[in-house]
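Long-time lurker, first post.

We've been arguing in lab meeting about whether S-adenosylmethionine would sit comfortably in this protein at all. Half the group thinks yes, half thinks no, and nobody has a model to point at. So I'm putting the question to the forum: if I give you the sequence and the SMILES, can you give me back a predicted structure of the complex? Inputs are below. Any interpretation is welcome too.
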Amino acid sequence: MQKVIVKTTKDKGRGLYATELIHDGSIIFEEEPLVSCQYSWNAAYGYLACEYCLYPLETAERNVQRLANDSTILLPLPDCCSVEAKLVNQAKCEGCGVVYCSRDCLERALKQYHGAICLGTDAQNEQHPVNLLVDFWKKMHYPPETCGIMLFVKIVGMFQQTSDPEGLRKQLLDFVHSSVNEDLRIFHKMLGDKFVQQIEQLYERFAAAFSVQSNDRLNWLSLEAFKSLIALVGTNGQGIGTSSFGDWVKNVSERQLDQQTRQSVDELIDELYNKMDEVVGTFLNNEGSALYAMQSKINHSCTPNAEIVFPKSNHVLALRALRDLAAGEEICISYLDECNLQRSRHSRQKNLREYYLFECQCERCESQIADPDETSEEEEDADDDDEDEDMDDSD
Ligand SMILES: C[S@@+](CC[C@H](N)C(=O)[O-])C[C@H]1O[C@@H](n2cnc3c(N)ncnc32)[C@H](O)[C@@H]1O
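Top reply:
Settle the argument with this. Predicted structure of the protein with S-adenosylmethionine, as tokens:
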């Protein structure tokens, strides 16, 4: 039996509720996405991930050498690199040469979307309409990336290949979607103010790349439908980060080691993170995003009782309980990061209103309703830093 059901309430719309007692630390469910993709800049910068599931495609040692720009780095405990043994399973698309972590991923991609969108020998042709579209998108959406144009390209492939286009449309419509006014605010958040007016030009390239008007499977994709699809992905897209070095660090931390080895490995890890920080800053992972049917129905709480994890270092998402959950209890995650979660009610509400476009009605916010409606000086400073970063990002 499923440990959760979807229920609808007046205040928050749909949400997930426990159907039985769920223990602290246990996995509530695992879920494969409807579609996932690596971000375009992330791929262009040489981050190596399976085209289908985002599993890393280099050893932890090679990964850290590349990110720290130092080929002399050697990692101890090589058996903690779970990626290494799997690299022999890699498979390539014979048409375009794109790489998968396994034959299984290649076959799934071919069956779901890749058969229709494979560029074959044009994969490296900069003038191919799909490559022009990706290029145009990259100019609109600089790192840190929050959305991938390849999601839309793959969705097109899925519509061309599916035996049940109506079923696929229903799956998309099941994601929460918004009004035209809200869509506009979502574009501003996704692309920054100066690129919003270019959505029409993006659509022109998109429509040309897939001849949408003359394609029976795609002719519903008008400019308005395309905009709604972008907003849908902007609202529901879940970020994914995978890394063979991160995976190695996790395995090392779970390994029983004597005190001296533990200390020297921990020091090495700190040193390597510092080195990578100097070269690539916070851009450590293969990054991408995906649409998940169940995950997208989980509401936010400022005291979350569950969290999203990626236990297989690929796009398979899991929901993990952060404490014991009683049958009937709503299961919520935090949409805010740790740091923002620690802030005042006023600040959290401002953040959720601005980035997620809703008024938080969680228990913590309701219980703090009488708190002063102001941002502390410390929080204002942090807000200013965030704004400076946003401006740097859009340059
Ligand atoms: C990813 S969806 C979650 C599922 C959504 N409730 C649904 O009906 O599909 C996010 C949306 O849920 C609602 N929501 C989530 N957490 C909320 C909260 N703490 N208070 C009020 N609304 C919330 C908001 O409308 C938000 O835009």
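For your lab meeting: The CA atoms of residues 336 and 351 lie 8 Å apart. The chain is about 45% helix and 10% strand. Whichever side wins, do check it experimentally.
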